[in-house]
Amino acid sequence: MKLTIALSKGRIFEETLPLPAAAGITPAEDPESSRKLIIGTNHENVRLVIVRASDVPTYVQYGAADLGIAGRDVLIEHGGTGLYQPLDLNIAKCRMMVATENGFDYDAAVKRGARLKIATKYPKIAREHFAAKGVHVDIIKLYGSMELAPLVGLADAIVDLVSTGGTLRANNLVAVEHIIDISSRLVVNQAALKLKYDSIQPVLEAFASAIPA
Ligand code: PRT
Ligand code: MG
């Protein structure tokens, strides 16, 4: 039975590699330096496909890949249709936060019921967060560099991922609210899990055994 695993080359990549290794899967060439999008492995029946991080759930949903690794942020925005999410891999950890320019009184703005402009790459997470708080917001969808938006008056606040906090600090922004903790998860196509159970189950077990504490 052939297995296709979707991985992304971005910041998850380095922390991802020990997982296939634990399952005895070695890429035939270094995905980091290769420009190939399909990379064979030491197993004749296992191949890797290299996709954009935010596209991993889509490839797995439609069965173009049987398994993949994706951030919880990406999975929430995608919605998770057709995906089984058996393992939190405890890698690429960060926090989804609300941040504003240093000096903006976020708590006061929320208290007086101000309508806030929120710039984010994560409209679903942002909308649900502010709806639960009863705060009215206009969501401004961006594709990157959210940190710029409050500095040039595009938004009052951003919803973005924070790991070291260095990017916020460098741009005179401060985190004002924690939304959720993020890590990467293994996702499996629901139909593939049934049809290819004998091939997928050992991979799941090996990945589970390689999860960092
Ligand atoms: O970058 P590209 O647009 O190609 O794709 P992508 O952003 O979808 O992928 P990638 O590789 O950048 O991120 C993949 C996954 O890594 C995300 O989906 C998260 O689950 C996870 N991850 C973990 C992070 C971070 N930590 C993180 N810090 N993703 C992004 N960041 C960014 C954040 O958006 C901010 O701009 O890093 C900056 C903050 O970092 P600090 O260390 O300065 O706080
Ligand atoms: Mg990125």
TrEMBL record:
GO CC terms in record:
cytoplasm
Report the pathway entry. Amino-acid biosynthesis; L-histidine biosynthesis; L-histidine from 5-phospho-alpha-D-ribose 1-diphosphate: step 1/9
ATP phosphoribosyltransferase catalytic domain mapped to chain residues: 52-207
Cite the InterPro entries for this sequence: ATP_PRibTrfase_cat, ATP_PRibTrfase_CS, ATP_PRibTrfase_HisG, ATP_PRibTrfase_HisG_short
- Localization per record: Cytoplasm
Sorted alphabetically, which keywords does the UniProt record give? Amino-acid biosynthesis, ATP-binding, Cytoplasm, Glycosyltransferase, Histidine biosynthesis, Nucleotide-binding, Transferase
What are the GO BP annotations of this UniProt entry? L-histidine biosynthetic process
Tell me any Pfam family this protein matches.
HisG
- Superkingdom of origin organism: Bacteria
EC number assigned by the record: 2.4.2.17
Q: Which GO terms describe its molecular function?
A: ATP binding; ATP phosphoribosyltransferase activity
- Asked whether the keyword Nucleotide-binding is assigned, the reply is yes
Q: Which reaction does it catalyse?
A: 1-(5-phospho-beta-D-ribosyl)-ATP + diphosphate = 5-phospho-alpha-D-ribose 1-diphosphate + ATP
Q: Which HAMAP family match?
A: HisG_Short
Copy the domain comment: Lacks the C-terminal regulatory region which is replaced by HisZ.
Record-stated family:
Belongs to the ATP phosphoribosyltransferase family. Short subfamily.
Instruction: Indicate the quaternary assembly.
Output: Heteromultimer composed of HisG and HisZ subunits.
What is this protein's function?
Catalyzes the condensation of ATP and 5-phosphoribose 1-diphosphate to form N'-(5'-phosphoribosyl)-ATP (PR-ATP). Has a crucial role in the pathway because the rate of histidine biosynthesis seems to be controlled primarily by regulation of HisG enzymatic activity.
PANTHER family referenced in this protein's UniProt entry, alphabetically: ATP PHOSPHORIBOSYLTRANSFERASE, ATP PHOSPHORIBOSYLTRANSFERASE ATP-PRTASE
Output the NCBIfam families linked to this UniProt entry: hisG (TIGR00070)
* Protein name per Swiss-Prot or TrEMBL: ATP phosphoribosyltransferase
Origin organism is: Paludibacterium denitrificans
